[in-house]
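User: Just a sanity check before I run the rest of the batch. Below are the structure tokens for the first item. I only need the designed sequence back.
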């Protein structure tokens, strides 16, 4: 299956990107969703964390605090796209992919589009296929919506580099 969601953010992609690359539970910034469920009750970060800005193919975004598994970076293009994968089917193909795409609207706005895809053998928490087909889309919608709103709120509440420079010059 495939689930796609999007939100328009009142910031350029370069100011949204840092929030995306620092995602993950535990030692990372959180998932910006319902922290009791996906971050062990620890609040997701409200600031950019410089130590989490460098990613590479293979970087782990833990699903839960203390987890040794989760989502690994499959590919990325800075300030444009991030593709994560989890689980492994035959041949090493991920069972699930989760993509984040930053699409420029104009110099001040960005469309953040997410797409989650699950392969035919994907079984969330080992649930039967019929349950996965009914429950996962609903749960994903609720969690993904909260995450997108959380990213947008954080990015929009952070003063841009241009705004900080203008305030410094005026002072």
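Assistant: Here's the designed sequence for the first item:
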């Amino acid at each position: 299956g495939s689930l796609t969601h999007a939100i328009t953010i009142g910031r350029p992609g370069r100011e949204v990107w840092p929030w995306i690359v620092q995602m993950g539970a535990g030692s990372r910034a959180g998932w910006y969703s319902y922290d009791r469920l996906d971050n062990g009750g620890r609040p997701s970060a409200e600031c950019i964390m410089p130590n989490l800005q460098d990613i590479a193919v293979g970087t782990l975004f833990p699903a839960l605090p203390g987890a040794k598994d989760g989502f690994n970076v499959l590919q990325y293009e800075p300030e444009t796209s991030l593709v994560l994968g989890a689980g492994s089917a035959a041949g090493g193909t991920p069972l699930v992919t989760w993509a984040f795409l930053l699409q420029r609207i104009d110099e001040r706005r960005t469309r953040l589009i997410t797409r989650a895809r699950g392969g035919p053998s994907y079984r969330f928490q080992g649930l039967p296929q019929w349950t996965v087909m009914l429950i996962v889309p609903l749960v994903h919608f609720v969690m993904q919506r909260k995450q997108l709103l959380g990213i947008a709120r954080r990015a929009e509440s952070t003063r841009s580099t241009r705004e900080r420079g203008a305030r410094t010059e005026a002072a």
